[in-house]
């Protein structure tokens, strides 16, 4: 009874590819549903924001790039009445004045000296910030001793070896901004460490002095400190002793930065467990040795992000020296933009935009660095 | 053990005794500071005498003889003294700081919450705002607002109307100025009654909820009592023809805006710049505070059946505030201190009036600088005192 039943059932031999999920359950559509249109309020917000962006972003990009003027030698290149078209940013003005923005009135034929200064400083900064750099101890000596001396000789002049003197009144632009910030960081780190140690000292008078200095400085605006350095410092010095016009605000900035740095470093000192102190003491180390070999290396390492953040603040605050008459980047932009040769409506925006790009790139770079160090420290703590 | 304590300390040289060392180092510090102070004071006295500059605070009573364009108290260059100028500057600083703090808080909370929003575009826009503003110097931003934005606004005759009676032009912001009549006192009176009533209702509602669990819309009642009651009183009075407060509305003439209250472009630029700048920092503070509340809290609240809004109000925000308040205080202080940048755009704040003009006219650097610094120091200390009190109130109560 071998009846071959008709083949009713069908057995598939090979695997069928899975159907794609419904279009609304994955991919860009799902993403949009979840992130842009998840509810009535969200949808309204998305539409409003998209509308606002649509009306603001293209004009801004067109202003900065599309209809910008790149070449020209005076304001007529950027004026609507002379060019006969809608004019965007006047980059020709920035390109024409770029040397002024970088060096101020530093003598033309001596500008190789600031260039070498930038290089020397850059080497020092990279050596200090790159945590795996070789011989970081020598790097610290280089940064805190060699760089300041070399920079001083390069920029101010050293007649004995044939570098003629350049009065600080001629310095300007990004050069001065960088000099002020560099002095701020180079001075504020060691002084900040001293103030922080003093504030945690067991000696009552030392502690009192440090607390007063730190809290007083942090309680007043930087501009008053700069005014004080400008007007009161000459009074306090004996007759005949004068302080250079650039050095006065430098002292103010360094003093101010030291107080803020001290609080950051104190945070690091407090984060070191007591056992580290006790261990060092039980080894018979003296206070300076304990601090230098045991505590500070650990404390400074964990506050690197805080130090960099303080430095970002300091870098932005250096603009305030322009108020007391120092030609930093802001002041050079201010004086260049009112120059009648370059009188055009868009010159104002272009000058500020240039300064903004410079400050943004510097600060953003620093904060990127501090975040990467933070991640690295967090990773090393996890283990 | 006692015998160990009783033993005489080992005889060591005095040089190695920590106590003696401590005394020695502190003595040296005192001597150095004393010497510096002595040198500074004697030199200052010498220099001041050589420059024929008076000392002491007598200059406060002298006539100032310079004009200040924005003053919240009566001031004229002819009759006012340096002390009046000081008060004008101080008030201007405080007004800018107060308005700036309110605006920066609103901007900051909005941007901080927006940055955590699930809405992609909103979160990215908020992040761009925060990153851009935080990485640019405040001075640059102030100069931008003042020289590049406000200076290019249309002239007064084609001022931009922002609302009923509010005009924005190159001359600043013109607003309706309130004029108070003799019966104006009823409005604050109504407000005070509303305040008392809302406190009473709040207590009663709390007690009732504790006893029966029934809730009462306290927020709306308070709002109605504080805003509605004065408005109602005003409306009733207006019906009977008595108008306690009328407005002097600026009118757009052929060449100028007449009447109303004018806020100068310096003031507008300063408030705008300060609140936008500080708002970005507050946004980060708020974001960090909300992120610091652990996810379990939100989940527990949802599992108890609280709605998202209630979860935010009763669970997340109160806990986030503990993290937010201390850095928020320092942002408020930063804003107050940063208001001194007014000097760059010539807004007559304390630094511009006192440390600028008065110092230049009198030459009494020591007194002027000291007073200005003490004012800021006092503001800082008072603010942190009150914020510490608030912080203690909301701090975690630990057993």
TrEMBL record, chain A:
Family from the record: Belongs to the binding-protein-dependent transport system permease family. HisMQ subfamily.
Organism of this sequence: Salinarimonas ramus
Membrane-topology descriptor: Multi-pass membrane protein
Subcellular location: Cell inner membrane; Cell membrane
InterPro entries to which the protein is assigned, alphabetical: AA_ABC_transptr_permease_3TM, ArtM/GltK/GlnP/TcyL/YhdX-like, MetI-like, MetI-like_sf
GO MF annotation: an example: transmembrane transporter activity
Pfam families: BPD_transp_1
Swiss-Prot/TrEMBL keywords: Cell membrane, Membrane, Transmembrane, Transmembrane helix, Transport
Listed GO CC annotations: ATP-binding cassette (ABC) transporter complex
Domain ABC transmembrane type-1 residue range list: 174-370
Annotated protein name in UniProt: ABC transporter membrane protein
Protein's GO biological process: amino acid transport
Stretches that traverse the bilayer: 41-61, 112-131, 138-158, 170-196, 208-229, 249-269, 290-312, 349-369
């Amino acid at each position: 009874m071998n009846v071959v039943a008709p083949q009713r059932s069908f057995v598939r031999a090979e695997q069928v590819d899975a159907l794609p999920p419904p279009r609304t359950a994955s991919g860009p559509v799902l993403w949009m549903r979840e992130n842009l249109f998840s509810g009535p309020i969200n949808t309204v917000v998305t539409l409003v924001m998209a509308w606002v962006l649509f009306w603001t972003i293209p004009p801004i990009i067109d202003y900065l790039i599309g209809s910008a003027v790149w070449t020209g030698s005076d304001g007529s290149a950027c004026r609507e009445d002379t060019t006969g078209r809608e004019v965007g940013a006047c980059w020709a003005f920035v390109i024409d004045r770029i040397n002024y923005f970088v060096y101020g009135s530093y003598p033309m034929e001596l500008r190789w000296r600031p260039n070498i200064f930038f290089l020397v400083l850059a080497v020092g900064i990279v050596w200090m910030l790159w945590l795996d750099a070789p011989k970081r101890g020598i790097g610290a000596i280089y940064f805190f001793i060699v760089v300041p001396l070399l920079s001083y000789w390069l920029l101010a002049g050293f007649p004995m070896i044939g570098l003629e003197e350049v009065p600080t009144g001629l310095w300007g632009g990004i050069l001065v901004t960088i000099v002020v910030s560099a002095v701020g960081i180079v001075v504020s780190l060691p002084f900040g460490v001293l103030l922080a140690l003093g504030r945690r000292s067991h000696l009552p008078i030392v502690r009192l002095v440090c607390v007063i200095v730190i809290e007083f400085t942090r309680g007043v605006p930087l501009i008053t400190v700069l005014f004080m350095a400008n007007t009161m410092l000459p009074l306090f010095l004996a007759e005949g002793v004068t302080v250079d016009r650039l050095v006065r605000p430098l002292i103010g900035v360094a003093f101010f930065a030291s107080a803020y740095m001290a609080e950051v470093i104190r945070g690091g000192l407090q984060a070191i467990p007591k056992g580290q102190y006790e261990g060092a003491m039980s080894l018979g180390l003296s206070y300076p040795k304990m601090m230098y070999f045991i505590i500070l290396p650990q404390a400074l390492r964990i506050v690197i992000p805080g130090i960099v953040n303080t430095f970002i603040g300091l870098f932005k605050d250096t603009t305030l020296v322009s108020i007391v008459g120092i030609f930093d980047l802001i002041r050079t932009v201010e004086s260049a933009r009112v120059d009648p040769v370059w009188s055009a409506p868009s010159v104002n925006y272009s000058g500020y935009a240039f300064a903004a790009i410079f400050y943004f790139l510097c600060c953003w770079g620093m904060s990127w660095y501090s975040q990467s160090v933070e991640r690295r420290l967090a990773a090393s703590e996890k283990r | 053990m006692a015998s160990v304590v009783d033993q005489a300390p080992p005889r060591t040289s005095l040089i190695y005794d920590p106590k003696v060392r401590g005394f020695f180092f502190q003595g040296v510090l005192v001597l150095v500071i004393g010497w510096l102070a002595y040198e500074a004071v004697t030199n200052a006295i010498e220099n001041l005498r050589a420059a024929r500059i008076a000392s002491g605070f007598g200059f406060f009573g002298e006539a100032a003889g310079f004009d200040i364009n924005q003053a919240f108290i009566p001031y004229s260059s002819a009759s006012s003294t340096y002390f009046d100028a000081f008060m004008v500057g101080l008030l201007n600083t405080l007004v800018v700081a107060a308005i700036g703090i309110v605006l920066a808080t609103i901007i900051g909370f909005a941007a901080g919450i927006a940055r955590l929003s699930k809405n992609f575009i909103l979160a990215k826009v908020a992040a761009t705002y925060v990153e851009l503003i935080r990485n640019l110097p405040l001075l640059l931003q102030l100069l931008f607002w003042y020289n590049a934005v406000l200076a290019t606004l249309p002239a007064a005759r084609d001022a931009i109307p922002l609302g009923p009676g509010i005009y924005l032009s190159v001359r600043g912001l013109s607003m309706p100025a309130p004029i108070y009549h003799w019966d104006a006192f009823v409005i604050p009176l109504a407000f005070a009654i509303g305040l008392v009533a809302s406190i009473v209702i709040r207590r009663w509602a709390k007690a009732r909820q504790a006893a029966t669990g029934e809730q009462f819309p306290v927020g709306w009642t308070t709002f109605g009592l504080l805003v509605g009651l004065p408005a109602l009183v005003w409306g009733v009075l207006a019906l009977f023809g008595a108008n306690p407060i009328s407005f002097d509305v600026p009118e757009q003439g052929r060449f100028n805006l007449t009447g109303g209250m004018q806020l100068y472009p310096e003031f507008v630029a300063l408030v705008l710049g300060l609140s936008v700048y500080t708002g970005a920092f507050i946004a980060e503070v708020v974001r960090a505070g909300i992120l610091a509340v652990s996810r379990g809290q939100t989940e527990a609240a949802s599992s108890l059946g609280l709605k998202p809004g209630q979860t935010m109000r009763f669970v997340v925000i109160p806990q986030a505030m503990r993290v937010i308040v201390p850095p928020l205080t320092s942002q408020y202080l930063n804003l107050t201190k940063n208001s001194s940048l007014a000097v760059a755009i010539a807004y007559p704040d304390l630094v511009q009036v006192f440390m600028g003009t008065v110092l230049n006219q009198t030459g009494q650097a020591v007194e002027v600088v000291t007073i200005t610094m003490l004012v800021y120091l006092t503001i800082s200390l008072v603010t942190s005192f009150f914020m510490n009190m608030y912080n203690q109130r909301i701090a975690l109560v630990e057993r």
